[in-house]
Design a protein that fits this description.
The complex is a heterodimer of chains A (about 525) and B (about 120).
Chain A (H helix, E strand, L loop, with lengths): L3 H18 L4 H16 L3 E7 L5 E8 L2 H5 L4 E2 L3 H9 L3 E3 L10 H5 L4 E9 L2 E10 L7 H36 L10 E8 L9 E7 L5 E8 L3 H20 L4 H15 L5 E9 L4 E7 L5 E3 L6 E2 L18 E5 L5 E5 L1 H4 L6 H14 L4 H12 L9 E8 L5 E7 L4 H15 L4 H21 L7 E8 L4 E8 L8 H14 L2 E7 L2 E9 L6
Antiparallel strand pairs in A: 1-2, 1-6, 2-3, 4-5, 5-6, 7-16, 8-9, 9-10, 10-11, 11-14, 12-13, 12-15, 15-16, 17-18, 18-19, 19-21, 20-21
Chain B lengths: L7 E5 L2 E5 L2 E3 L4 H10 L7 E5 L3 E4 L1 H16 L3 E5 L5 H8 L7 E3 L2 H9 L2
Parallel strand pairs in B: 2-4, 3-5, 4-6, 6-7
Antiparallel strand pairs in B: 1-2
The chains are: A alpha+beta (about 525), B alpha/beta (about 120).
């Protein structure tokens, strides 16, 4: 039996929840709601605490008369004290006399609160937080008060949850854009990546990364931090950066994973992640790979059957103190595709994992050569409705055959030289050059490029172009061209550079024009030197 | 093939032996130069640089060796190189005539013997 006054109070509450909840930003909405609750229930304080992503801690998000709670960043473990008990039991809790109750948060006593009433915020059967009110005078909260507060909590919970989802959705998008890397452009190497946030816009711990190493090889990584939410995503970001930092320091894959495991244990003991890190040398197709409990990469030789790269079992990152990882060398033929993926791509609820893996193999086998198209096809085939409960990441790579001639541009930076050497070496291999031809011509070309990089552009950014072509009789010509102002080589080591170009090729020709300088190197290849 | 290319220095009595691996080039030269110049101790008779495990050397790497030779000569210290026979490293160092500033040997033992010879 409800009093007339109680019904009016309820209507009063619902009027704001309907109108204001629809458009107010979350923080304003919570403030507005607490104001209204304080007025309607004639209490002195009111606070909303929301559950953290760890599902174990309540954090105050808004308060009236208890602002310190928010400012101080109080953290209340589920099950402890007053609010912790509301969340743990999912039932309202009334406290007549704070002095005699089990209270975790000292602010409640400091403020001189006498009586408290708290109710859970529940969405789809799960507790997402706690709403509580308090009075500075002793007050026995009754069933009407409790019902009213619970109604306020129920409506607020839905609004809060939809706002939070929106916010997470915004963050998931932002993460997708900012944390997912811009893939490097390496000559004759095709790369494509996909990241799909989990359903209901929950943030996930999946990532992929690809980057040029200082020696011109390609580093590729994929990984998945166990867990979901902001926290898993934040750990993911740190692991991704850590992996890249170790890799750029020149560490081999197994060592990169060992360091990363140690880093994860330091960042958050108890958290684990799986990852594969590999280094691909586009020149010759040598692949070195190490895995930390991650699903095996799929390899698809051009015109052949895709197969999973069988790696011995390994522990996830963070799972063992002093984890040791093994690395393995594999040779890939030109045109072979590499497919790295996370669980989220192949797993579906109520379906054996094998079915997802089979679908992956079939889609890769029947897929197009273009990796962007293959990426789209994989997402369509494996996650037709978007990602499920887990986010999904996918990284594809293919070293392409080079063909008759290469024309490639590089930033005029020293870091370009190893990349250029590897590209030219690969092309010379395909053109039938001997080891000695490859060594000599790539060194001579690197000297020409170094001269352009150091002298053509001063401090302004520029490009260096590499062309290589084969003529009749096993003669190849490599042309290194810049578009800057030519100046004669200076210093003794540039003088030695020219000496090396002349000593290692059959002919060197330097052509200056208004638009730049071209150094042409030619040599007969394929004949073993006497 | 991608073991860490960190250079290493071991001392055999009064002679340092620096082992260079991988690529001795424009990308690595700055760090290598500091490492090589720092490897010579006050009491040393000379320095051996072992290039057996190196796969590549360019004109900048060559210049580091020449600068090292000059610094050693100023202090009247001996300089010996260990080169593998018949590869790119030997071809490059022959073109620039490294023999004018350093003794060229096929093994670390030979190089050490030449530095220690009175």
């Amino acid at each position: 039996m409800k009093s007339r006054i109680a019904a009016d109070r309820l209507r009063d509450l619902e009027s704001i929840t309907d109108a204001a909840l629809a458009y107010l930003p979350l923080e304003d909405l919570l403030e507005e709601l607490l104001d209204r609750v304080v007025g309607i229930l004639a209490v002195d304080t009111s606070a909303i605490l929301l559950l953290e992503d760890d599902d174990a801690t309540l954090i105050p998000r808004a308060a009236k008369g208890l602002e310190e709670e928010v400012v101080r960043g109080v953290r209340i473990p589920i099950g402890r004290g007053f609010a912790g008990r509301v969340a743990a039991t999912r039932k309202p809790v009334r406290i007549l006399d704070v002095a005699e109750a089990d209270i975790y948060n000292p602010i409640l006593r400091e403020k001189g609160l006498q009586s408290l009433l708290g109710v859970p915020l529940v969405v789809q059967g799960a507790v997402v937080g706690v709403l509580h009110v308090g009075t500075l005078t002793r007050r026995a909260f009754d069933d009407d008060d409790e019902e009213l507060l619970q109604r306020a909590a129920d409506r607020a919970a839905l609004a809060i949850f939809s706002r939070l989802s929106e916010r997470e959705r915004g963050l998931a998008d932002a993460l997708q854009r900012s944390l997912m890397p811009r893939l490097p452009h390496l000559p004759a190497l095709s790369l494509a990546g996909r990241y799909l946030p989990a359903a209901a816009a929950r943030l996930g711990g999946g990532w992929y990364d690809a980057f040029a190493l200082p020696d011109g090889r390609l580093g590729m990584a994929i990984g998945d931090v166990v867990g979901r939410g902001f926290h898993a995503a934040a750990i993911m970001g740190q692991l991704r950066s850590g992996l890249r930092a170790y890799a750029l320091d020149g560490m081999p894959p197994h060592q990169v994973l060992e360091r990363l495991s140690r880093l994860l244990r330091q960042l958050e003991p108890g958290r684990t992640a799986t990852s594969v890190y590999l280094v691909l040398d586009p020149h010759g197709g040598a692949l070195t790979v190490a895995s930390a409990g991650h699903p095996p990469p799929l390899i698809h030789p051009a015109g052949g059957e895709p197969y999973f790269l069988e790696l011995p079992g390994s522990v996830p990152l963070g799972a063992a103190r002093h984890a040791r990882y093994e690395q393995h060398d594999v040779e890939l033929d030109p045109g072979t595709a590499l497919v790295l993926y996370t669980d989220g791509l192949v797993e579906r609820p109520e379906e054996p994992l094998e079915d997802g893996l089979d679908r992956l193999v079939k889609t890769v086998r029947d897929g197009e050569e273009d990796l962007e198209h293959l990426g789209d096809a994989l997402v369509d085939a494996l996650l037709p409705g978007g990602a499920g409960n887990d986010d999904a990441a996918l990284l594809l790579a293919r070293a392409l055959p080079l063909g008759e001639e290469i024309v490639a541009e590089f930033p005029a930076e020293i870091e370009s030289i190893p990349v250029m050497r590897r590209l030219l070496g690969r092309w010379l291999d395909e053109a039938g050059a001997t080891r000695r031809d490859v060594d000599d011509l790539t060194l001579a070309s690197a000297e020409a490029a170094a001269n352009s990089i150091e002298h053509a552009y001063g401090l302004a950014p520029g490009v260096v172009e590499l062309r290589a072509s084969a003529e009749g009789g096993g003669r190849v010509t490599v042309a290194i061209r810049d578009f800057g102002n030519w100046r004669p080589p200076r210093g003794t080591h540039r003088g030695r550079g020219l000496m090396l170009m002349e000593g290692l090729t059959d002919a060197v020709e330097v052509v200056h024009s208004d638009t730049g300088t071209t150094v042409e190197l030619s040599r007969r290849i394929g004949a073993e030197a006497a | 093939m991608i073991e860490s290319p960190e250079p290493r220095v071991d001392y055999h009595d009064s002679v340092g032996v620096v082992t260079l691996r991988g690529e001795v080039d424009i990308v690595q030269a700055g760090e290598l130069r500091d490492m090589l110049l720092g490897a010579v101790r006050n009491e040393d008779l000379g320095l051996v640089v072992d290039l057996t495990g190196a796969s590549y050397i360019d004109s900048v790497g060559v210049s580091v060796l020449f600068e090292l030779a000059e610094k050693l000569a100023e202090r009247q210290l001996r300089f010996a190189l260990v080169l593998p026979e018949g590869g790119l490293i030997e071809r490059v160092l022959t073109i620039v005539n490294v023999g004018a500033v350093a003794g060229v040997h096929r093994s670390v033992d030979d190089a050490l013997a030449s530095v220690n010879a009175t």
